[in-house]
Design a protein that fits this description.
Layout: E1 3-11, H1 15-26, E2 32-36, E3 39-45, H2 51-58, E4 67-75, H3 80-87, E5 91-93, E6 97-100, E7 112-115, H4 128-138, E8 146-150, H5 156-163, E9 168-173, H6 176-188, E10 194-197, E11 207-213, H7 216-229, E12 230-242, H8 246-255, E13 258-266, E14 269-276
Parallel strand pairs: 6-7, 8-9, 8-11, 9-10, 11-12
Antiparallel strand pairs: 1-3, 1-4, 2-3, 5-6, 12-14, 13-14
Helix pairs in contact: 4-5
Amino acid sequence: MQYIETQLTFNPATPDNREILAALLAEIGYDSFMDTPTGLSAYIPSSSFDEAATAAAVEPVAAVFESLKIESLPVPDVDWNAEWEKNFTPITVAGKCRIRAPFHDYDANYQLDIIIEPKMSFGTGHHATTTLMIQQLLDIDLNGKAVLDMGCGTGVLAIAALKLGAKSAVAIDIDHWSVENTQENASRNNVEMNVIEGGAEAICGSFDVILANINRNILLDQMPVYSRSLTAGGILCLSGFYESDLDIIKAKAGELALQFEKVLERDEWVSARFVKTK
């Protein structure tokens, strides 16, 4: 598959600013990111690339930067795993969970050890929203629970849930690459789950816990399906949106018998937790 590399040069080139831009670009089809000394390189299949859409995606935050330059160019065939290995470092969450690559050594100091090789999928733990969702999972009694990971990316959340005691997990993603990557990562972590390619229409059955780390608009559109698929007393954890979006998410939840319970925040991103009341 041919890819386009979009090089974003900005100042200040901080980790937080890189995360914000990566999240915005992920919403329009960019599926891999690499930090650079002066900013960020983002990658998208050539068939999905739209120069105007790229500019529009980052325009809302352009004023935050002293300067922002964007340049897009075709990418020759690349050994993506080799490129990723140069930049990936283990992630720790709440002192309990460590997300690492296959080439990192195991560390027995952590309760939860997760091996992820993301390839072109989103969800290594580096982004604030993934970290926040892992934090939510660490605070939930998952023993014997049926879990749905919606927009699974690498499958990291479903894998974490199973390792924390969930009895079963279904992982759904609209992207074929993510489905394959989730299956591979499940095997690496010695867990079994049902991985499905599709959107909300693919949700079947009922779940005790539903996890969705996507973006605000998709969450608002799919929340009625999530609510119908939750058991009474079931838990819904959402992320992929900013703190400024929390009120609209809470309002929608209130219409669907989903009672707001808890919010976690990092770098203006949030993860909100709700309980199905009936």
